Each structure stands twice: as C-alpha cells, then as structure tokens.
C-alpha cells in the first residue's frame, strides 16, 4: 500500500498554532486507500500548542534552508531552528514510513506549498513554500496543498 505524509492538523489533531485542527472531508477522500503518516513539524521541532503565530521573513522555506531567511513569531522571537528541526524530523518520518508524497496544510510557514504568508502578519500571501515543504521537495517527495482548507 502506498503511503502519504499528511499534516497532523488535517487529520484532526489539535496541533495548530491556535490549538485547533483543520480536518475536512476532502482530506479523507484524498488519502483513501493509502497508509497515512500523520506529522506536525512544528510540534516535532519543539514548539508548544497553542503557540504564537509565526511567518517567514526574508524569503520562503527554501531561503530558510539556505540560511538567507528566517521564521519569526509575531513577537519577533526567532523560531527558525525549531522549524528546521521539525522539517528534518518530517523528512525522516516520511522516509521511515515509505511515503511517496505529502499532503500538507496550505499557507503554513512549515507546510505551505506554492503560497505562504508574507511575514507582515497582515494575512497577505506571497508565492513560496514552507520549510518542511521545501525540504521534502528537495529530497524528492512531492508536496501538494490539502484540498478544502
């Protein structure tokens, strides 16, 4: 059976920054018939639930991995190390689970694919990927944003 890595919040785990989840019927349809590895990179990286909102500053997840951008909370606290550690743990979980792709939470500084918040905390989106999405893509695991959320 094929396996897929899925953001834990999409599977009903209340691990988002606001302490909630984002489970949706479209998620269950998208993963039907596959082994699911649920994972939250932010929690795995050592961040609490709930936690302060965080956004990418100075670029996207690829830039964070290259050391030219960072992840900061709305208070200004730098949480780049936690996001990078969580991304590495997500990659390990995907590999250990035999995942051939990932279905991740849209717009997230960890899991976003194709669009992420711009770092202003004003709800503005810019093209780019989150840290975990970028790392998975770099290692040959295709990432797609979750439908319906």
Order of helices and strands, N to C? EHEHEHEHEEEHE
Low-confidence stretches: none
Overall tally of structural domains: 1
Structural class per helix/strand content? alpha/beta
Sheet bearing the most strands, described?
A: 4 strands, parallel
Strand proportion, as a percent range, falls in: 15-25%
> What is the count of β-strands?
8
State the assembly state of the protein chains.
single chain
Helix content: 25-40%
Shape summary:
globular
What is the helix tally? 5
How much is the radius of gyration in Å? 14 Å
Distance between the termini: 26 Å
- Arrangement of strands in the largest sheet: 2-1-5-8
Mean pLDDT, all residues: 97
Pfam families: 2-thiour_desulf (PF04463)
InterPro entries: 2-thiour_desulf
Protein name: DUF523 domain-containing protein
């Amino acid at each position: 059976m094929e396996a897929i890595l899925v953001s834990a919040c999409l599977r009903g785990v209340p691990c988002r920054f606001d302490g909630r989840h984002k489970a949706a019927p479209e998620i269950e349809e998208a993963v039907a018939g596959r082994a699911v590895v649920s994972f939250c990179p932010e929690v795995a990286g050592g961040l609490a639930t709930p936690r302060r909102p965080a956004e990418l500053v100075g670029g996207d997840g690829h830039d964070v991995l290259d050391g030219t951008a960072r992840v900061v909370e709305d208070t200004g606290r730098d949480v780049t190390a936690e996001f990078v550690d969580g991304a590495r743990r997500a990659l390990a979980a995907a590999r250990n689970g035999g995942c051939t792709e990932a279905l991740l939470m849209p717009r997230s500084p960890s899991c976003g694919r194709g669009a992420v918040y711009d770092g202003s905390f004003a709800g503005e989106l810019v093209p780019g990927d989150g840290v975990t999405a970028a790392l998975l893509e770099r290692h040959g695991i295709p990432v797609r944003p979750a439908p319906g959320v």
